[in-house]
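Hi C.,

You asked whether I'd gotten around to modeling the 247-residue construct. I have! Everything is below, sequence then structure, no commentary in between.
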Amino acid sequence: MFSTRLIELLSRATSVAVLTGAGVSAESGVPTFRDPGGLWSQFRPEELANADAFLRNPDLVWSWYEFRRGIIADVAPNPGHAALAEFETLYSDFTLITQNVDGLHRRAGSRRLLELHGSILHNHCQSCRTPYGGEADDHAHPPRCTACGGLVRPSVVWFGEQLPQQEVREAWDAAARCQVFLSIGTSGEVYPAAQLPTVARNGGAYTVEINPRPSAIARQMHECIEGPSGVVLPALLEDVRRLRLTA
């Protein structure tokens, strides 16, 4: 399934960076951002995931995120998440960069994690940005900030908002210095994250895509492995461990 070069590089590497997208979470049963289904299929994500929509109809937007949080609460990390948490233990310099907001990587045990698009599991005030640690009174109305009284919103990056700059800098640095870069379960169409494999390749890294189907950036990669991450990553981990033990 894997090239000898990839296994050898991963067995000798000290610095590895990984980018994950919605495909990894989809294997746990999390619907993609653009396909929540049911009641919400009448809305485009762009109509709900932006600050203007929230201020115009906060109850509607809050209810959508509460619906999505309910889905996430009912699923579990899959073998792909678990394998990435194990990969982290093999390298002195390992960075997992994710576009996902569902917290499944943390639940699987990943710690060296950069959440480029924030986390749906946390909230903050739309007005003063103070983190909100309380519970909402119900699922239909957003709570109010205890510091300023403003509306509390999910701590995710909405359309039209900048990515968290500290996380972006750390992601770019990790991609630029790594020896192997894995792009997993991402379409390669969401920028600026889609630029990271190019940053890694320009820095001398061996770049690999793991996806059921080739992405928009597959041609830029040194190697493409077709298959679900929940199958591919545990097998890759086993091969790397075996070679490290015999080296």
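If it helps when you're writing up: The mean pLDDT is 92.

Thanks,
B.
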